[in-house]
Amino acid sequence: MIHDILISIGKIGAPFGIKGWVKVISYTEKSQNIFKYQPWIFKINNIYQKCYVTSWKTYYKKFIAKIEAINNRCAASSITNLNVMLFQKQLNKLKNNEYYLHEIIGLQVLNTKNFNLGKVVNFLRSSHHDILVIRSQKKNHLRFKEYLIPFVYEVFIKKIDKNSKIIRVDWNSNFYNKQK
Q1: Residue 165 has what pLDDT?
Q2: pTM of the predicted protein model
């Protein structure tokens, strides 16, 4: 059924009230933009289903939404913790120097001294900024080393080159020089 790539743009939180409203956690840069994308795709029991938001609002700096066919708390509970996905083709086209976070997963990360930290494997969300999760390619005592680098452009993130698939970061260069 689904031939396009699915992108996670958020997550359904706990039910809100008794009429089927749910809390919504947005992964979009401007949080409210999650509601601009319709339909949302949910994976329920290994089946992809399209759903539409019929209403949404801000509630104490968070979002709640009413999703079609979800009309009571029990139904809202059944979609708690589901990823809010959409087809990649639904995303707006970006300029050359812009990118979506999912596009840099898998890119190689080098620090300013050319030390290879590994590849981007994930992002963590914080209230201030995203955090790159980088996993080294070399095993160290049967474990891969992970680095968490704040995604702050021009401070820690120096350059993202999608063509060469490399991200340059300014991260603990003195520590890595001692390790060489």
Answers
A1: 92
A2: 0.70
